[in-house]
Amino acid sequence: MSPAPSSSSTPAVPAPPRAGTARWAAGLLTAGLLALLGALGPGLAGTSAASAHGAAPTMVVARLGAASTATAPVVRLVARVPLDRLDLAYGTTFAQAAAADGLDRALLLDGDAITDLLLARVTLRAADGVSWTLRATGVTGASVEGSDAARVVLVARPSTGAGGDELTDLVLTWGLITDVIVTHDVYVGAVGTDGTTSLVATLTQTSPSTDLSVTLPEATSTSMLGVGFAHFRSGADHLLLLCLLALGVARQRTGATGAAGGRPSWRTTAGRLALLTLTFTLGHSVSLALAATGVVDLPSRWVETAIAVTILLTAVHAVRPVLAWRWELALTAAFGLVHGLGFAGALGELDLRGTDLLVPLLTFNLGLEAAQLLALALVLGPLLVLARSRAATVALAVVVGVVAASWVVARATGLPDVLGPVTGVLLATPERLALQLAAAALAVLALRHAPTDGPTDLPTDPATEGHDSSRALCSLTPGSQATAETYRS
Question: What's the burial of 410, exposed, middle or buried (CB within 10 Å: 0-12/13-18/19+)?
Fold first, then answer.
């Protein structure tokens, strides 16, 4: 029978903590998150609930010129307005009617109602304050980024009838849909005298007006920079893929792969993440250029479904990142190619061609990259914390995987996305996702450090569990090792 170890050689064994502390901390953090979402809720009424790749924008193209039958100037506006955004903003059923009766037939019945909504919320004024009279000349069916839309043709003339030949300093103010949905974008283009289309501005609820006479290349460059930035921010699928890539790299840092050689250094981890991000960027830049120039033209349903599949596969990889590094790079590049085809939708809607496409393409891509880097900076910290817990990693990957699977079904079949009302709110912006990840990370930290009776509420990763305790065990005397082993068991 072994003698009891002396008190001088036995280290103090931590006393079992009190029960309930971890649950209290987790409950407090959960309540805080729900309160935060509740506070944000009123402002989210207009966020997208149906499209994970960003809700379809409104497209407006203006042509300025003299009227063919009068000396007064005339402006022709062609607007393509997504029906589902109208329904979300004003409680109408235009999209439902189009799905049931066909787009053209539905617009025959609903065309007047749509033009009434538009004319009540769109104005055109000259610099001297003279209002122009807008008149709708026709409503036909169209599409915007794969969504059913109404194509409304408007003709505008000075209401006084005294305008001359000058078409300068005309200010378009747009409030259709944007007066309710804060995240809705209106892309305004203008056709120049040479027949080329230039992007004039992106109108939103906070920036509803633009000067139609500004069609210089500088205006297009600045506008496309903003379009690219906004396009990434509104695309929940691109954001989730970026998060999963970062989570997979962070899991490798925690030693989740079980590979020999120990955990990689922080410098190696940062280098891998930077290289994966660069690889994804190069991939989507190549396919974006090919799609925007018309070299590659695939049906949007195929592209959007493939994007959702890439997220589903990346979620699996994030839980158990066992791919060799070269294959991980190759797969990330391939996924970038797929996502680039989705990015090209906004450029394609503007109908830019030839050399007119070069500058917008470059600035659009710069806007994408700026938004991508800022989003990564927001979510990286919480993801590094979550990656240290296998339970948290699995939970996050499962949630994202379920969302991606829902997108696959909805995009492949054309059926409504059953999770759309939830994901449209929770994934509306990178900031909102970062807040949720931060709350989850705080909960993980609270559960890890809070005292508990027996097993922790949220077990740590088996790959890292015992790393510190085993090192401490080696420093004990033979007698105290037995006591420590008894405590650990």
Answer: buried
Q: Which residues contact 231 (CB under 8 A, 6 or more apart)?
A: 54, 343, 346, 364, 367, 368, 371
Specify the residue for token string 């009434």.
116
Regions of the chain with pLDDT less than 50: 1-51, 67, 162-165, 216-217, 256-262, 456-457, 463-489
Q: What is the pTM of this model?
A: 0.66
Express each pLDDT in 15-25 by its tens digit: 444 444 444 44
188 CB contacts (<8 Å, ≥6 apart)?
A: 60, 61, 62, 172, 174, 199, 200, 201, 202, 203, 210, 212
Alpha helices by DSSP H, 60-102: 83-90, 94-101
Q: Which neighbouring-strand residues pair with 153?
A: 78, 138
- Domain range annotation of the chain: 58-215, 230-427
Q: What are the distances in angstroms from CA 279 to CA 18, 242, 266, 275, 327? A: 49, 12, 20, 6, 12
Query: For residue 268, what are the contacts with CB-CB under 8 A and spacing of at least 6?
Result: none
DSSP-derived 3-state class of residue 73: strand
